[in-house]
Structure formats: structure tokens, C-alpha cells
Design brief:
The protein is α+β, with helices and mostly antiparallel strands and 145 residues long. Helix content is 36%, strand content 23%. Strands 2-1-4-3 form a 4-stranded antiparallel sheet, sandwiched between helices.
Length: 145
Amino acid sequence: MGCDIHPYIEVQINGKWLCVGVPEAHRNYAVFSKLSGVRGYPDDNTPEELLPLGDGEREMMLPEDSDEELQKAYEEWGMDAHSLTVMPLQQLRVFVRHYGRQNKNDDEEKQWQSACEVGTWLDICEEYVGSGMAEDARVVMWYDN
């Protein structure tokens, strides 16, 4: 049994947060540690803007303004859900710029695949915000054991 991630993409339209996607995400502890401090800690090269995400010491609260679908999904996990992380669009941009668009080698292939998944999350968010369909975007994620 391992730890899995549950990411939800939300966009803000007319001041209301709406869930627009539940992207596929593969298990990768190296990426989990960089996103949320799960199963590890950020490395010395972690950008300062991302350090609050990966401190592994705090549990965020689910935003009260989250989409109802997301709230129900989170509640269904009950005590098994942990390490809730909310990554605003700006932090997602920093993460992908730093980790998600780099060359891979054979040893890093799995990590690259997971980082590319995070890059896809950013692409979805940017599509909504860049087109003017949404004012803002974020990824709300948690983990289970």
C-alpha cells in the first residue's frame, strides 16, 4: 500500500470557484515531496516561492469557497486524506518553470512523467485564465495511504 495524490483543478468564474477537472496523477514520491512535503522534503534548489508548499509540517484547511464536488470528494476520504495543499496559479507556474519542463535521463524518467502531469495541470489553468473564461485558477490536492 502506498501514498496517492488526488488533484482537483478549480477556476474562479464570476467570483465563484468551480471544479473543472480531476486530472490523472501517478504515484511519485519525489514529486509529492516537492509539491507538498509528502514522503520527503524539498531539496536545496527549491525556489523560495514554493517553500511554504513543501514544509511537511502544516495541514491546510480546505478552502471554504471550494466547489461542492471537491468538498464532497474530500469529505468522503475522511481520516485517510492528509497533507491537503492548495497551489494557486502563481505557485503552479513557479513549480512547472523550476521542475516540470526540464530534460530527462533514464534515471529520472518516472519523475519527469509526474512533473509533466503537473505541467498539464498548469496548461489547463492557463487555458481558462488566458482565454478570459476565468479570473483565477488553483489546484487543490491531498494524499491518501
